[in-house]
Structures are given as C-alpha cells and as structure tokens.
Design goal:
Layout (H helix, E strand, L loop, with lengths): L5 H4 L7 E13 L7 E11 L5 E6 L4 H15 L4 E4 L10 H12 L2 H9 L4 E4 L11 H13 L2 H5 L4 H15 L5 E6 L4 E5 L1 H6 L18 H21 L24
Parallel strand pairs: 1-4, 4-5
Antiparallel strand pairs: 1-2, 2-3, 6-7
Length: 266
C-alpha cells in the first residue's frame, strides 16, 4: 500500500484541498410560471482531507454560471489552496446524459475560471482520469460518487423550482457531513459513543442531535413535503451506499507474522 498524497496528510483547514465534480442535468420549473422549465446542473465540492461535501446548483451552461456557483462556495467555505476537477473526457461514449454533461464541460472557459481562482490564491487544476481508473482520485472521488448516486432520487421527486432544488442539495450535503470519520466510547459505564464527523470540523459540533430518521409529514405546505420527501429518500439511499464504508476492513488492520520469530533458513 503506497503512501497517501500530501493533500490527504498535510494539516489544513477544511476545503483547503478540494475536488469538484458535476452531475445532472436536472429539470427545474420557474418559481412563478410553473409551465416554464429550464435545465440546471448539480456540483459537488469535496474536501480531500476531511471528506466533507458541499453541494450546489449551476444555473446555466456558461463559465459565468459555474463561476457564480464557485463564488458562493468560497463565500461559505473559504478559498481553497488547490482545486481539482476532471474535464470529463471519460464521459465520451457513455449514456446520453453523460454525453450532455461532457458537452457542457467542453464549453466552459477553463482559463477564465483558473484566473479568477488564482486571484484569491487558489490553484485550479483540470486533470484527466482514465475511465477505468476511478481509484486514482482517492477517497474524495468515492465520497462524491456515493453522493451523486444517492441524489438520483431528485429526478423522481421533482420537478422542483431552482430554490427548492438548491434547498434539497444543501440538506443532503449536511446529512452526508454527519457520517462518522472516527468513533470512540466516551464513558464505558454509560456506553456513550462520541464520534467525529466532517460537520465537527466545519461547525465545531455535529449538526444533528441523535438519529435524523425520517421527516414528519404534518407540515401544511405541499412543496415543503416534497422537499422533505426528497431529502428523506436521499438519506435512505445514502445510508445504504455509505454504510458499508464505515466498517473497518480487516485487510489492513489484522496483524499476521509471515514467519515465526527467529526462523533460520538452511
């Protein structure tokens, strides 16, 4: 097992080393004219050190649209030292939705984004990953993949308005940031388990108290119920996809001596 890259081991603030990935598209409705629809994209920022995630919406297929979303991200999380994103060439030949995503990425003015990021001390790198080697971007890409798979439920619950979709993404990211990074028993006699999560680093505490469970459906507003339904479905799928990754793998944690001590070869 090789050494971890510096961005995984260097002490830094959350999102100092960040990877960016886009997904979608999603169809959203106009807030006032319900019959008018438009196509938007989702974007996930993932901290390569803490695996914290931040999800948001890209409103249109332009460099300005992605840059506006990036500015919202930096206003909330701060400017990263390094930012990685994949131009998406491995999407070529995939299903139509992925081909459409690659078409969007090919229109983005990457130089403009890099210059804007550099003005705040951020090095934005567009790197290519082989289609058959998703492991090369490490745990961050794995976290992004699970979030994207769990967010597929949005298509089934929509169409939402732009603000409603953004709300669902924010709530979903907050739930994802509650997953434990490490857990320990605080008091053995009380069986109190204290755990460290990405939200512990982002907020200085956990964002939720106890098990989030499902949302109550007694709100009088139908659109609130739709948002809650989408987030509840995300939580169900997220628990199924991310849960197995929280267990310790014995492959790297079992000590075994290959030869008995003081063995001599003749």
């Amino acid at each position: 097992m090789s050494d971890l890259p510096p961005e995984r081991t260097t002490p830094a603030l959350p999102f100092a080393y960040t990877t960016l990935d886009l997904f979608g598209p999603f169809e959203v409705r106009d807030g006032k004219r319900r019959q008018v629809s438009m196509k938007v994209w989702g974007v996930v920022f993932c901290c390569m050190s803490s695996r914290a995630v931040h999800a948001d919406v890209v409103e249109d297929q332009s460099s300005e649209g992605l840059l506006t979303t990036y500015m919202r991200f930096t206003a909330l999380r701060g400017h990263p030292s390094q930012l990685w994103s994949d131009p998406g060439t491995n999407f070529v030949g995939a299903r139509p939705a992925l081909e459409e995503l690659y078409g969007y990425l090919s229109k983005v003015d990457k130089v403009k984004l890099e210059e804007e990021a550099a003005s705040h001390g951020t090095e934005w790198s567009w790197k290519f990953h082989p289609a058959d080697s998703p492991h090369r971007n490490g745990a961050a890409e794995a976290a992004v993949k699970v979030v994207k798979r769990a967010l597929r439920v949005i298509d089934k619950k929509g169409p939402f308005t732009l603000v409603e979709l953004q709300t669902v993404l924010y709530l979903a990211a907050n739930l994802a940031n509650e997953r434990p990074i490490e857990a320990r028993i605080q008091a053995q006699e009380d069986d109190v388990i204290e755990y460290l999560s990405p939200n512990s680093l982002l907020l200085g505490r956990t964002g939720l108290k106890g098990d989030s469970g499902g949302f109550k459906w007694d709100y009088p507003f139908q659109r609130f119920q739709a948002i809650q339904g989408a987030v509840s479905e995300f939580w169900r799928r997220w628990s199924q996809l991310a849960g197995p990754n929280l267990f310790t793998r014995p492959k790297w944690h079992t000590r075994r001596e290959t030869l008995p001590w003081a063995t001599w070869f003749g």
